[in-house]
Amino acid sequence: MRVAVFDSKRFDRSTLEAANQLFGHELVFFEERLGAHTAPLAEDFDVVCPFVNDKLDHKTICRLAKLGVKLIALRCAGFNGVDLAAAAEFDIPVTRVPAYSPEAVAEHVFALLLTLSRKTHRAYNRVREGNFLLEGLEGFNIHGKTFGILGSGKIGLATARIARGFGCKVLAYDPYPPKNCDVDCTFLSQAEVMANSDILSLHTPLFESTYHMINASTLATMKPGVVILNTSRGGLIDTKAALAALKSGQIGGLGLDVYEHEEGVFFEDLSDSVLKDDILARLTTFPNVLITSHQGYLTGEALNNIAMTTFQNINDFAAG
Ligand code: NAD
């Protein structure tokens, strides 16, 4: 099938090409993100292959339908960026890659946590400047801490497994906890997990019901100095509340692989343009904030799994 691959810069092109050797689709790469303005690029394509921050709202999907696009084959797990009702209205199926490497994201949680706990980001910069002093670099042990997981799906449980390996007590909340959980963790209410965790890691999808689940009220119930890690979706945290909690010391460390107002999420309140414009600048004034660029999935193994499943999805569609 003729496949238009969007946002190609954020995904290793050679991995896609190598995986496609098994499938033989005709791939055309566009650096642009897919949205209403770039939809005309999909003319003469059977399939569009968007990535995590592409925005497929009603207008975009209507344009794709007029161009004859038959399938939206996401090369990511989350589908926040796709108006599924519009896809159904225009009879365009949507496929995604539900699980490609939960371990990749779970390991990134610990990359963020270990950097924050041992301040290696600061040490790295100092040593490069010839400064070998240790002042201000005292960290904390992860061993023995209470590690809270919100969302015990694939990534949440992979994270819980690693936390157990570090010698943490693991608490978890999920409205649909796994029936046979193979990880040694205690399931409690969301409020109990929030109130008792030294380290809190977010693994719930972004729904309207989970939007800003970390806010001024819930932060006030947490242990002073709590370390919060978000590799899930930026909208789970009310950034304004987080900034205030960082200032007061209520949040002792914040590790973000995702942040509010990344493109492609529909129901976030974008009216606060000040926050939108300088959100990263304001967060990065705190030395105990670490931000990465939505790269939790970015391992060779995960990329290969994503590419293989995406092309398999296209094959399955073509086969009916
Ligand atoms: P999953 O579907 O396996 O698990 C999500 C879990 O969250 C489910 O068990 C669900 O019951 C639970 N849940 C739903 N509502 C909840 C609530 N209100 N409170 C607590 N739990 C709730 O998904 P997954 O593969 O583990 O992925 C989790 C999230 O990670 C995705 O939604 C996506 O946003 C994010 N993600 C990020 C990256 C990255 O690169 N940073 C990569 C992949 C996925």
Automatic annotation (TrEMBL):
Listed InterPro entries: D-isomer_2_OHA_DH_cat_dom, D-isomer_DH_CS, D-isomer_DH_NAD-bd, D-LDH-like, NAD(P)-bd_dom_sf
Keywords: NAD, Oxidoreductase
Alphabetized Pfam families for the sequence: 2-Hacid_dh, 2-Hacid_dh_C
Gene3D superfamilies: NAD(P)-binding Rossmann-like Domain
Superkingdom per UniProt: Bacteria
Positions of the D-isomer specific 2-hydroxyacid dehydrogenase catalytic domain: 17-320
Domain D-isomer specific 2-hydroxyacid dehydrogenase NAD-binding, residue spans: 110-296
GO molecular function terms listed in the Swiss-Prot or TrEMBL record: NAD binding; oxidoreductase activity, acting on the CH-OH group of donors, NAD or NADP as acceptor
SUPFAM superfamilies on file: Formate/glycerate dehydrogenase catalytic domain-like, NAD(P)-binding Rossmann-fold domains
Family indicated by similarity: Belongs to the D-isomer specific 2-hydroxyacid dehydrogenase family.
Name this polypeptide is given: 2-hydroxyacid dehydrogenase
